[in-house]
Amino acid sequence: KITIHFINQDGERTTTTATEGESLLDVVVNKNLDFSGFGACEGTLACSTCHLIFDENVFNKLEPLVDEELDMLDLAYGLTDTSRLGCQVFVQKGMDGMTVQVPQKVNDIRKAAELSWKQ
Amino acid sequence: MSLFKHAQFASRHPGIRLWWKSKELDFVTGPVCTSLFNTVRASSSLPDKKKELLDGGPDLQDFISGDLSDKNRWEEYKGNLKRQKGERLRLPPWLKTAIPIGKNYNKLKNTLRNLNLHTVCEEARCPNIGECWGGGEYATATATIMLMGDTCTRGCRFCSVKTARKPPPLDPNEPHNTAKAITEWGLDYVVLTSVDRDDISDGGAEHIAKTVTYLKEMSQKILVECLTPDFRGDLNAVERIALSGLDVYAHNVETVRELQRHVRDPRANFDQSLSVLKHAKKVKPSLLSKTSIMLGLGETDAQVYATMKEVREAAVDCLTLGQYMQPTKRHLKVDEYVSPEKFQHWENVGKELGFLYTASGPLVRSSYKAGEFFLKNLIEKRKLETQ
Questions:
Q1: Any idea where the 2Fe-2S ferredoxin-type domain is (chain A) (predicted)?
Q2: Does A42 contact B85 at a Cβ distance shorter than 8 Å?
């Protein structure tokens, strides 16, 4: 059992365990983690909704991308240098304790105004 | 309960001795009796709030009659309508629909399977399926046929239609077979929609256009509406369909400009969709154009108004507004359940802005009652012309 930390679009952190060989998309869906609209194409490399950002040291150890993944990843919102699609990354022993996150939600003017009223 | 059953059984088989019945009675007077008393004692020790809920809440009669709550109106609804962080909203009562059953519904389902046709009604899990297929009050069954298969090449975060990188190839007989099937049904108004096929060079425009042409050849009086993809902005494809003989050209912008990136596949965007609608009108001005937006994804009123205005300025004639409902857990959560009164407000705004018709309601979808609205407007227009 491998422990993985997830940070969702609202900045909330959840820790869960996964089995070796599962894709990260499977982990998010099976464990009902609070990610809105994650994995819309069900892992067929036809969308970029399972986009995840990794720590650099973990990112470098991942299997190389195929062209199809790169095509979809290019369209992803909030792309970084350590981004991958969750449906193409499979859980391995070396990932124990890693943290993955999705791009943080863009705070629109409403939210900022709300926060300033509360303060 | 079981005592009653035994009594029935005994009365039907008078020869059988009721020895086990007396055993049961013993049983009742024994431990069960004391536990009954125990439960009575237990309920009297419930906190007052719970007792109030139990007394004031539904009883068995409510469940049997099927009319559980008359709290259908927005003011009486006590649940949450705007999503707070981390929660998932519950479905408000005005969005609950009956489970689809009935002769018409089953007949349609079987016909579709035999003809190897797909409907978006099933693929996208439309809540109106029972009503439209069942035929409603005028017994006119409406279905929206999905061309080019049931698998799309894009994954939008609101849509549950299957997605694949390389869907199965097109069936070259589909245009002819579909046209034939629809003509056999004798439908007055049919909506043809399709999945996105970015893997095909023209996006499937030729395929759709052929279906429309065959339909118009085979049936003199049928009215055809096409809900098309954006063909990645390929205006030649749009033109091919616009000139194929259809009556209504529909293409959905889906949401306000600000949420396009968040809600739709990144290959789709607002300006591209608007260009499709503008071009269709330009190429054939007598065409009616139509678009649709979903509410409840986190948009503000100002954004909705601005979107409606922009769409009207693109000479779009018809607008429909509906409530977004999360189809599966892989899709966006509902941000807000917009009240029926608010939908009415948007309908009034649509009228003010000059749309030919604005269909607005929580369960309204792009092709919901499309035929009725269109025909009603057409008839009224003709009445005015002959006067």
A1: 2-106
A2: no
What count of CB pairs under 8 Å joins A to B?
63
Tell me the mean pLDDT in the region B330-338.
92
How far is CA B55 from its chain centroid? 37
ipTM of the complex: 0.81
Q: What share of chain B is helix, strand, coil (3-state, %, to 5)?
A: 45, 10, 40
Among the partner-chain residues B86, B163, B332, the one whose CB lies closest to the CB of A41 is: B163
pLDDT digits (tens, 9 = 90+) for B66-98: 555 544 555 666 677 888 877 788 888 888 877
Tell me the nearest-neighbour CA distance from B123 into chain A, angstroms.
14
Which ranges of B86-204 does DSSP label H, i.e. alpha helix? 103-114, 120-123, 129-134, 174-185
Contacting B with CB below 8 Å, chain A residues are 10, 12, 29, 32, 34, 36-42, 44-49, 68, 75-77, 108, 110
Q: Which residue has the higher pLDDT, B273 or A111?
A: B273
Give yes or no for residue B255 having a pLDDT over 60: yes
Mean of the per-residue pLDDT values of chain A: 85
Q: Do B159 and A40 touch (CB under 8 A)?
A: yes
Which of A29, A41, A110 lies at the smallest CB-CB distance from B155? A41
Predicted confidence at residue B38, as pLDDT, reads 45
pLDDT at B28: 41
> Residue B213 burial by CB count (10 A; 0-12/13-18/19+): exposed, middle or buried?
middle
B267 touches chain A (CB under 8 A): yes
Where do the domains of chain A lie, and which CATH numbers do they carry?
A: 2-115 (3.10.20.30)
Query: Which residues in chain A have Cβ-Cβ distances shorter than 8 Å to B152?
Result: 46
Q: Between these two residues, A34 and B309, which has the higher pLDDT value?
A: B309
Best of A9, A14, A49, A115 to substitute, by most chain B Cβ atoms within 10 angstroms, is A49
Start-end of H helices in B219-316: 235-242, 260-263, 270-283, 301-313
Neighboring chain A residues of B199 at a CB cutoff of 8 Å: none
pTM of full prediction above 0.80: no
Mean pLDDT on B237-252: 93
B157 touches chain A (CB under 8 A): yes
Contacts of B35 (CB under 8 A, 6+ apart): none
Assess whether pLDDT exceeds 90 at residue B209: yes
Residue B65 pLDDT level (bands cut at 50, 70, 90): low
* Smallest Cα distance from B1 to chain A, Å: 40
Distance of alpha carbon B24 from alpha carbon B43, whole angstroms: 26
Torsion of CA B143, B144, B146, B147, to 10 degrees: 100
Asked whether the predicted pLDDT for residue B233 surpasses 80, the reply is: yes
